[in-house]
Amino acid sequence: xxxxxxxxxxxxxxxxxxxxxxxxxxxxxxxxxxxxxxxxxxxxxxxxxxxxxxxxxxxxxxxxxxxxxxxxxxxxxxxxxxxxxxxxxxxxxxxxxxxxxxxxxxxxxxxxxxxxxxxxxxxxxxxxxxxxxxxxxxxxxxxxxxxxxxxxxxxxxxxxxxxxxxxxxxxxxxxxxxxxxxxxxxxxxxxxxxxxxxxxxxxxxxxxxxxxxxxxxxxxxxxxxxxxxxxxxxxxxxxxxxxxxxxxxxxxxxxxxxxxxxxxxxxxxxxxxxxxxxxxxxxxxxxxxxxxxxxxxxxxxxxxxxxxxxxxxxxxxx
Length: 318
Description:
The protein is mainly α and 318 residues long.
């Protein structure tokens, strides 16, 4: 039988976590809970930053954009998985799979660049405090966010265009809970050498270059902190970086887990992917809110106003 080309591909099958229908309600409740916590937590961070004038600084500007990227990043995979669990279907259309891949790469790349921009912001704040307002001006901050989106989108579109030229065999089963590019490439009947070269080259660049920038920034930051004479001053300087360090550790730690598990059994790869795509975006708001007094105060105001609005709406309803 001759392999069918991409025009005959109408759908892929996502195997997901379990074939057993008994486990489906548990999986649905677990991932729905994590998704709601992720969306609400990051949404409250965005509302807190936008509503409090004291948080209108470069650090919190990047944080709000990171929260937005995390919401979109998680929303590319989890809702479709929840729909498939609820409808007891494993199908995703070819167009839906391509779209999911595209947005997954865009917002995953944005996360990487935004974490690097935040590290640069902390580097300037601690190592060059007198020049901080001049260097980290609104134009530069906006440009960094736009560039992160532009680079991620450009890579995503190139990879998708290369994907569209491929022809696929009769096996359209993807052993994952979302359309992972590397897994989808293994189903192609045509030559995928260019796709794999681009995939590994850009993945390495997106991993090594931003991480090297973060590592360089924190090496200089550590050197500057050690030169501060007072213990209290060292603690204050380090506390401004602690939350970001925790988020970087989560992001790159789970990302490394996904990379190392690429050749491992499918269930290990899926667990690593869950940590990377769901758990890390869910924990980020907690990391920043628990270790940051300014965010805590702003969140209390937002939650207070939200609670008052809900009570007022209920009172009017009665």
